[in-house]
Amino acid sequence: PSSPKVSPLAKIPASKRVDVEAEYAKRSSEKAKLNMVVIGHVDAGKSTLMGHFLYALGQVSDKTIKKYEREAQKIGKSSFAYAWVLDETGEERSRGITMDIATNHFETKSKQFTLLDAPGHRDFIPNMISGAAQADVAILVVDATTGEFEAGFDANGQTKEHALLVRSLGVQQMIVAVNKLDVMDWSEARFEEIKAKLGTFLVQAGFRKSKLYFVPVSGLTGENLVSRSADTPLNQCEPFLIYESRFLDQFEPPMRPLDRPFRMAVSDFFKGGIGSSSGVSVAGRIDAGHVQVGEQVVAIPGGETGIVKTMQVNDETANWGAAGDSCLMTLTGLDIMQLSSGTVLCTPSNVVPVTSHFEAQIVVFDIKVPITSGFPVILHHQSLNEPASVVKLVAIIDKSTGEIIKKNPRHLSKGSTATVRIKLANRPIPLETFKDNKDLGRVMLRKGGETVAAGVVTQILSFGS
Ligand code: GDP
């Protein structure tokens, strides 16, 4: 017998219930919150640039920087001191590579940014995907020195791949930091050359020209980053990463799907609670809707329910969280065995579909071997990666008009847009159409360590169809 639907808020006394939409509206009158990802080829200077910036903003103490400078000198790499602000583990330091997504916060006049640092090394792209999946805006760092811009921009460089990745993950607004111009004597010709080449590519990749901001900088000296470059042809340029930054302030805040059913894709979980030993804790970003302490949620797949006991939102204790928030919460009544990477927490009355077969519209990247029916891939969805294959090529589509160019194509070559059917090899996963959920409706296809395509879910197909 079906029992009448009980509100997920039933366990919370009426006096303690939070009117989340009203609270959210209050919060929205405060500074808009944006997540920013820093991308670019390895050694482009991402860590140095962001480290210098955070230092200049006062986020890092003089004492810490002095310590980093001493340590860096000891190993003969004094220029690494700023980069260490972002690279926190010893292994990363000795290799000089940023491996994980370290988060940092900073503010401008009208915005609050959470900085998701992205690794530049090729092997680390899967990590970057999970960071970029949370990004609203991006900074693309390119090395302007002779030969280095070109190396990052060629077929094996990550400049293009990263840009395509963030665009296909929904990032529409981007600052392009043309970096290391100190080495190039602040050559205006070099800056314009890079701007023209990269600009053409980025527009082809689907960015709008008006949403791209090119700035000449040196992350090392800080010129045009936090101070104006002196005596150079480019000295008219406004420093971009400063508190009053016109560049950072003109990023438009994203629309958060607050009125949609609650969804939170779990990126991490562990036994024990925040500040106590009972319960299980889960971390992730709220993709849609909202949740509050005392509310009942359900873990999909599995369907096991739990009650939210305590929460931290954007690193602070809170009693509610909403779409766009990074959230750590402790749940009671939920067995940790019911959680796995890829779990999505939902509201009990409306849960995310679970499927192993779906239709997607994809953009094919710079690939050497065309995609044919049966093509095996690793499917990246949120923080999950699963073996899958492209089982059917439905149609090739005109990127600008959306019209079908060719039905049942035999293969898909680089640059094409197409509708395909994808089947997971091992297990079904929670997945939604892009129309229903912009975060849970995106996928990335990789093969042999390279990204071959990215796209959006257009239809959930039932098993075996
Ligand atoms: P990442 O791999 O993109 O994070 O790059 P890093 O920040 O680790 O920098 C790579 C190398 O370039 C380091 O040796 C830095 O000192 C150097 N570097 C970074 N930014 C600049 C810059 O603006 N000018 C100069 N001359 N060197 C820089």
Automatic annotation (TrEMBL):
Principal location class: cytoplasm
Keyword Protein biosynthesis in annotation: yes
Catalytic activity: GTP + H2O = GDP + phosphate + H(+)
Keywords: Cytoplasm, GTP-binding, Hydrolase, Nucleotide-binding, Protein biosynthesis
GO CC term (a single one): Dom34-Hbs1 complex
Keyword S-adenosyl-L-methionine: no
Origin superkingdom: Eukaryota
GO terms for biological process, alphabetical: cytoplasmic translational termination
Gene3D superfamilies linked to this entry: P-loop containing nucleotide triphosphate hydrolases, Translation factors
Location of this chain's protein in the cell: Cytoplasm
The Tr-type G domain, residue ranges: 31-254
GO MF term list: GTP binding; GTPase activity
Stored SUPFAM superfamilies: EF-Tu/eEF-1alpha/eIF2-gamma C-terminal domain, P-loop containing nucleoside triphosphate hydrolases, Translation proteins
Subunit structure comment from the entry: Component of the Dom34-Hbs1 complex, also named Pelota-HBS1L complex, composed of dom34 and hbs1.
Membership in a protein family: Belongs to the TRAFAC class translation factor GTPase superfamily. Classic translation factor GTPase family. EF-Tu/EF-1A subfamily.
Listed name of the protein: Elongation factor 1 alpha-like protein
Species name: Mortierella isabellina
